[in-house]
Write a structure and sequence with these properties.
Strand content: 5-15%
Largest sheet: 4 strands, mixed
Mean pLDDT: 92
Shape: globular
Bound molecules: glutathione
Strand order of the largest sheet: 2-1-3-4
Number of domains: 1
Oligomer: single chain
Distance between the termini: 32 Å
Number of strands: 6
Length: 274
């Protein structure tokens, strides 16, 4: 990472990402961009133990929360008072702010059609898929190989409905991006909307849940290819994102580990087969 005196430094208040589906969205984006050559910002983080570190020291009492220097917000139109810093909460609001602060990163794509669909995808993830979220709590080193057999028929049907829509969103994103790339209108690195951005980060937690809980996703080819990329690329892989937590026993919360019966540990070398 390279930085200069004018490179802004942000601070992320986060839960340990192994249990926090909201925090990981922001953490993965910050991590990805801060590791780029000529990264436009640096960041530090404080990780809290949910349920133990109460109250969380953020305006909403929730994490994630990102603290940014006020002069970074005013970079294009300085006002009289740009001293100090401010804290922004809510994962989607933080992602929108990163897009505004660093348009060159394409947190949302620069192509208007792709950008519209990337925003829909991020927003749909933010407010939707309630069955998977409530029945499959985030616990990303965990593996529940027999989870499906323990579900009621009703829960299975509800999860199947969420999975069908999720795969359609991923497949649709990749198809549209490929079509625009074939016409030379966008650059495509294989992420949902071409370059790594908001939609990839927003969907990372449900992708992990599909793996952890062995959920029967009705895979389509492009969606599966994206999942495999997300899972195995160095900067977005589970092992990279949680390297620190893997080594630190104090990040484990028994309460969350015991929430769903039948827990085993995810084999670290597991990969999506495409
Ligand atoms: N809509 C918010 C939700 C944030 C949220 O609910 N965060 C949880 C952690 S994942 C939290 O801070 N819980 C506080 C606690 O459990 O004490 C977002 O997207 O940031």
């Amino acid at each position: 990472m390279s930085s200069t005196d004018s490179t802004p430094n942000y601070h992320l208040a986060s839960a340990h990402v192994r249990y926090s589906t909201w925090s990981v969205r922001v953490f993965i984006l910050l991590n990805y961009y801060a590791s780029l050559p000529n990264a436009p910002f640096t960041f530090t983080s404080t990780f809290y133990n949910l349920g133990r570190d109460i109250p969380l020291p953020t305006p909403s009492g929730l994490v994630p929360a990102l603290t940014v220097p006020i002069n970074a917000l005013h970079h294009s139109s300085p006002t009289s008072d740009t001293t100090g810093e401010t804290t922004v909460t809510d994962s989607l609001a933080i992602i929108e702010l990163l897009h505004e602060l660093h348009p060159e990163l394409n947190v949302y794509p620069s192509h208007p059609l792709l950008r519209a669909h990337a925003r829909v995808a991020a927003a749909e993830m933010h407010s939707g898929f309630s069955m998977i979220r409530s029945l499959c709590p985030g616990n990303y080193w965990a593996w529940y190989p027999n989870f499906n057999t323990s579900l009621s028929a009703e829960d299975k049907a509800n999860i199947a409905k969420d999975l069908a829509r999720i795969v359609k969103v991923w497949e649709g994103a990749r198809k549209l991006t490929e079509e625009l790339a074939a016409k030379g209108e966008v650059h495509d690195d294989g992420w949902l909307f071409g370059t790594f951005g908001a939609a990839d980060a927003m969907f990372m937690p449900v992708l992990w849940r599909i793996r952890s809980y062995e959920l029967p996703a009705p895979w389509e080819e492009r969606a599966k290819k994206w999942a495999a990329k997300m899972w195995s690329e160095e900067r977005t892989s589970l092992v990279t994102v949680m390297a620190d937590e893997l080594a630190r026993e104090e990040t484990v919360e028994q309460k969350y580990d015991d929430m769903v019966p039948g827990r085993e540990m995810l084999p670290k070398d597991w990969k999506f087969e495409v």
